């Protein structure tokens, strides 16, 4: 689980740092890279103070009790049987923290070169508190509205963040781009990217992209069991069908493609839907 956490973190650093940093103008490279880097510290602090409690504490259908795990009170080496009965509670908390880091970082690409750094920090603090944490609880938390397996009323199966990560960040990024509008001078003034090779490295480097997906999808199984193996076999099949995992002949197309997610989740190694193999069906968001 700790190895999976490290692999997921790679999608932010160096993944998003290289990807977004290479696409902006030279004068904005450092600030754009810092958009992702600062979230590693900022979101970690939020998560350990009250975020984990709001997302995975017991509460109502929309958010957990922010005082239950305040400052990680009660989060120790003993497993939490509600979420992961075979690994330490601390390991589960760290793995989920990697997703609260990368999700707002995905939004930063929509506001690149068009927002002050101080305003960006304030916005991300508000966004993760108002949007991410309640949604995370509703989909993954005990008693959440969409967590059918743990007392929810609406069945939504999110295996690796298709709802909590990709839909939330994608819709929020779209709204931010609409509100902020175009860059000053666009499209009349030339706005050449700083270094597309940096973005290309992140997009095509299978060691970053493939291993990070292995960590996210594998870690979400919460155990090295048959479900873990089956999930990786499905990824391998997609890779063969897409000609090496990209699905495109030209590397530049990979930079423009939208992120995909998987709407399926298991808890503690047990399927959340009855029916054996039927529970392993994946709904791809593309």
Characterization of the model:
The protein has about 290 residues and is an all-alpha fold. The chain has a single domain, classed as Ammonium transporter AmtB like domains (Ammonium transporter fold). It is built from nine helices and four strands, in the order αααααααααββββ. It has a two-stranded antiparallel ribbon. A two-stranded antiparallel sheet has the order 2-3. The chain is elongated. It starts with a helix and ends with a strand.
Number of domains: 1
CATH architecture: Orthogonal Bundle
Amount of beta strand:
under 5%
Tell me the distance between the termini: 27 Å
CATH superfamily: Ammonium transporter AmtB like domains
CATH topology: Ammonium transporter fold
Number of strands: 4
Task: Please summarize the sheet with the most strands.
Answer: 2 strands, antiparallel
* CA gyration radius, whole angstroms: 19 Å
Question: Tell me, what's the shape?
Answer: elongated
Strand arrangement within the widest β-sheet reads: 1-4
What order do the helices and strands come in, and which of them pair?
Elements (H helix, E strand, L loop, with lengths): L1 H20 L7 H28 L32 H23 L5 H24 L21 H19 L15 H9 L1 H15 L5 H16 L9 H6 L4 E2 L3 E2 L2 E2 L12 E2 L1
Helix pairs in contact: 1-2, 1-3, 1-6, 1-7, 2-3, 2-4, 3-4, 3-5, 4-5, 7-8
Descriptive tags:
286 residues, two-stranded antiparallel ribbon, mainly alpha
């Amino acid at each position: 689980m700790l190895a999976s956490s490290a692999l997921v973190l790679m999608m932010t650093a160096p993944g998003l740092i290289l990807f977004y940093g290479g696409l902006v103008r030279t004068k904005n490279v450092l600030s754009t890279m810092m958009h992702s880097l600062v979230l590693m510290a900022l979101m970690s602090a939020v998560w350990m103070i009250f975020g984990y409690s709001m997302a995975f504490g017991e509460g109502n259908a929309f958010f957990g009790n922010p005082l239950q795990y305040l400052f990680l009170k009660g989060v120790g080496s003993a497993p939490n049987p509600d979420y992961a009965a075979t690994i330490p509670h601390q390991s589960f908390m760290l793995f989920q923290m990697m997703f609260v880091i990368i999700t707002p970082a995905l939004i930063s690409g929509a506001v690149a070169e068009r927002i002050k750094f101080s305003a960006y920090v304030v916005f991300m603090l508000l966004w993760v508190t108002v949007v991410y944490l309640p949604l995370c609880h509703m989909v993954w938390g005990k008693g959440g509205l969409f967590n059918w397996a743990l007392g929810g009323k609406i069945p939504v199966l999110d295996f690796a963040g298709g709802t909590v990560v990709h839909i939330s960040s994608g819709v929020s990024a779209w709204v931010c781009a609409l509100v902020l509008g175009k860059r000053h001078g666009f499209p009349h003034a030339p706005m050449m990217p700083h270094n597309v090779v940096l973005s290309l490295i992140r997009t095509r480097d299978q060691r970053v992209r493939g291993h990070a997906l292995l960590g996210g999808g594998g870690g979400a199984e919460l155990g090295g069991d048959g479900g873990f193996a089956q999930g990786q076999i499905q990824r391998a099949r997609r890779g063969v069908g897409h000609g090496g995992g990209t699905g495109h002949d030209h590397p530049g197309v990979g930079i423009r493609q939208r992120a995909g997610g998987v709407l399926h989740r298991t808890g503690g190694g047990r399927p959340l839907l009855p029916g054996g193999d039927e529970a392993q069906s994946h709904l791809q968001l593309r």
